[in-house]
Structures are given as C-alpha cells and as structure tokens.
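Supplementary notes for students who missed Thursday's class. We covered one full example, reproduced here. Read the sequence, then the structure, then the short commentary at the end.
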Amino acid sequence: MCPGLSDDLQQIDNARKTAIIDRELKRLNIDIAALQETRLSESGSLKESNYTFFWRGQEHHERRLYGVGFAVWNTLLSTIEAHSSGTPRVLSLRLTTSSGPTNILSVYTPTLSSATEAKDQFYEELEAKIRLIPKKEHLFLLGDFNARVGADHDSWPRCIGHFGVGKLNENGLLELCSFHDLCLTNTFFPTKPHHRMSWRHPRSYHWHQLDFVATRRSLLNQVLVTRSYHSADCDTDHSLVASKVRLLPRRAHHSKQKPRPRINIARTNKSELQELFAIAIDEALEGCPTDSATERWNHIREAVFQTALDTFGRRERKSTDWFEAGVAKLEPAIAAKRVSLLAHKKDPSTKTLVALCAARSDTQKIARRCANDYWLNLCHNIQLSADLGNMRGMYEGMKKALGPSPVKTAPLKTAEGEIIKDRCKQMKRWAEHYQELYSRETTITSTALENTQSLPPMVELDTPPTNEELSKDVDNLANSKAPGSDNIPPEVIKAAKGSSLLQHLHELLKQCWKEGAVPQDMRDTMIVTLYKNKGERSDCNNYRGILLLSIVGKAFARVALNRLQLLAERVYPEAQCAFRAARSAIDMVFSVRQLQEKCREQRQPL
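Structure (token representation):
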C-alpha cells in the first residue's frame, strides 16, 4: 500500500497505491476499509480525494514489515477517532453511532509458518486490546487472520455458521472467538461459493477463506451480509471482503466551527471582475450601521466576504499529482485490467494469464507515459519560475513534486510528562501551552523606571489616522497570505481600492481609535501547529505555532505600529540595529566582518 512517498526523491514509487485504492473503494461504495501489509513506517495519515488513510507500522529504522491501517470516507471523519498507539499488527478505530460507540480493529495475524512465540505474542496483544473495550460497546474485527476455520458448526456453534469453507488448521482464532463470544460473519450467509473465498493458493490454485469479519454474537442481527469482491483490483493476491452492517454514524460534537469557503484569489487580477466587485461592494455597504465598532465591522466583514465569493468564486482544488492529472487516460486501461483479473480468477488458465499480463503491461506503459509528461511539464514550470525570479511559484512546484505529505501523529504529554489520549484534554494542553507562551507578564522594576530618561510627550501620535496612512498600509500587505477566521485574503481588500470600501474601513478605524479598542473578531487568532522535525512529537515545545490573524486587523495594526515607530526612534540606543528601517542586523554583521578582515590585513588590533 505504498502511497508513493519517500524521504529519498530517487526512491519515489510512482504507483500511487493510495490513489488506486481510493478509486476502487469509491467504486464499490465502501465506507470504512481495514488494510493489512501496508509496510509504512511509524504512524500517520494521508488524505486523498475520497478517503483518508491511517496506518501504523514498524519504527523508522526497522525493516518495513507487516503494518495495518484504515481507509475512512472523508465525510465520516467527524464521527471517528483513530488511535495511533496500536501495533504493526493491530490498530483500532472508534466510530460514534446512534446505537453507541463502535470499535473496529484492523488485524494482521502471523502466517502459519511463523514461530509459535510470534503467534502467542500476537494473540496476547489482541486479547489485551479486546479486554479494554467495554462489553456494552460494539466490536468488529477485520483483517487477514491467516487461518482456516472449516465448516464444523456442531463443534463451534457460537463462532461459525452453516456456510463455512474447507478444513480447520492450527490457529487460535476459534479459541479467541469462543472466549469473547465472537462470531465469524463470513460463515453465516448463504452466498455463492466463490463469494466465500478470499485467497487462492499460488501452486494448487485452491481457494481458501483467510480474511474474516468478526463481531459480537449479540450484534450478528445487525449484519446484513458478508461476502468477497474479486473485482477489486489493488495489486494484491487477497480479494476484498466487505460486510454490510446496519449502523447509523453520528457526528461527534466539536467546538470547532465549520470553515468558510475559500475565495479564488487567482481571479482578483482581472480588471473586469475588479470593476464588478467595486460596484457590488458599494451597493452592499449602503446603510452600514454606525452604533458601535463591532456592529460596523460585522456588517463590513459579511458584505465583503459574500460579495467577493459571488464575484470571484470559490477556489478550486488543484490536481495534487500525476495520477489525478492523467486519470482520463488511465481509467480505460485500469478498467480493462480489472476485467482481465476477474476473468483469470474465474478461469486460471494460460490464456487468461497472458491476457492479464498484457493488460498489466499496457496499464504500466500508459501510467509511465502520464507520469513522464506530468514530470516534464512540472519541471519546466519550476525552472521557468526560477528564471523569472518567482520564488513562490518555484516552491509551489516543488511541493507538487514531493506529493501529498503524510501527517504523522503522536499522543501529547502533559508538562509533567504524562501521556494524554483524550482529545479534549489534548486541546486543553495546547491552550495551556500557548497561554504560557504568549501571555507572560513583563515586570518592570522601579529602578529601571527611575533610570529611564523622561521625554516630552508627542501629541501628534494621538491624532486620528488619516486615509492616506491606511491606504499605504493596505498596499504594503503581502499577497498570498493565509487569512484569519473571516477568510478575507489581502488580494480582495486591494481589489476594492477603487470602491468605497477603503473609506468605510477608515471610518471604522477612526471609531476604534475613539472607543479605544478594536472588535474582538480582529484580535482572535487561529493557531496552526507545525512540527519542527526534531525531538519527540509528543512534546508541545517541539512545535511552532503559526498565528492566522484578520487581514483588516493587520492593516489596522500596521497603522498603530508606524505611529509607535516614531516614538521608538527616540528611545532606541544607537547600537540597536534589528527591527529598524535601514538598520538590518545582517548589515551590521557584514560590517563587523569587514572590520575583522581589514584589521587582520593591516595587523591592527580590533
């Protein structure tokens, strides 16, 4: 299940297995899929077009064996809770439903030829995991158990049904099911014989039932059917086993508000759209309330956002990799390969094998051609951006070349070092960390105040800001910056310079200046945490917090900052070089190095 990502660019797998699995699961209308033999290191997640993948594997320095994971339909993400504390053979997922919590385990059992110690250790881990789940909660075990349970219903009446397949081999699956009152749903439904099989032996060509869906015996009446789908083509020798269950997911409550749609800033440079936006914003801002700064800002914010969204439209999702860019050419070849695979499974002969190999070869050729065209076009765009000095375009192209980044997760730790698994407590830990980081009180001693030189007051700093000051600061706002909770990017504010928006913002700024405070919405910020790629992921100090503020609030802050800079110039000592115009710290370091070199050349003391 390699997603096509690697730390070494020379070892990137262009198969894009997660994209293929994403399309196959969507075609078969699967909501949650348990994955085995993922062979991905550590734990993480990756979001594709329709599904989000979670996995747990060996450590980064160990050989990539085993590995389990889940593929969850994106609309169900708000109803699930994935745990990263599993093992490379057992990973759990908790689903919130109308009938109570449902626990799903993705399981990969050691093969029959594995050592007895490995099998015993696995079943001990699995049994310990099941014991932690309360009996009143639903439980499903999905995965490759590498076990044949046979058809002896009389000996195991609570565990297997009347539609088992084959003979029983040496395994601990039935003992585990009997002890915890679990049943194998594959054996309880009168499906076609080939729909009960999931794996064919490569030499004897005999079909076996190795992949199971197990649940509590009391929940068997909620299972509608369990069968195999041999048409699922994900380059694996196991067939997909799907179970239809009567469950209604329930959206978990989150305090996080639904984000606003993003405005397509690429269209803000078109002059005809700018004219339409200026006319529309003038009409929307008529009758703006003036009772308080908060009411005025709320009206301006909603009018600007809705008008910009109607004029410029929503930002479309860009193609992330070569697979999505060339899916129109790949889809017919993938469909033909799927038909050949199904024909070979029904009739394993030399003729069907040759047809399957030919279909795989054609698909591989088309995939390589699509990938080659995509990489050549992407490299050309990166080189062109570099030649033109467009650093942003160059780095965006490099991000496309690296592909979607897997999100690696780890449970947080408290300040005392205790592990936090509860999501609400983790959010409280983040709030505690940033409150301690950004809300530190600055203590000024009386001695420092006495030694500070008294200066005459600057009365001109108290005068209301002018329209020219605000217009200059709006022009100085950097483009392509992430907005705050209002989701109004700087390009929208600049596109409305020819309208009455700037005048309304100036009136709002003067009202805030008079009231002595800005609206709380401008001061609220969204904090995005980024891992520093060093230290433990469970330590909050190893993350960098990125603050997303309101763009209009930034413009107002620039006006106040420029006023304060005039006061700071009177207080700064001559040696202060950083955070001052025309006095960069880099320039001062360069000057010191030049002095050192000249002193060495002249053999003079520094």
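Commentary. Residues 1-14 have pLDDT under 50 and may be disordered. Residues 322-402 form one domain. If anything here is unclear, bring it to office hours.
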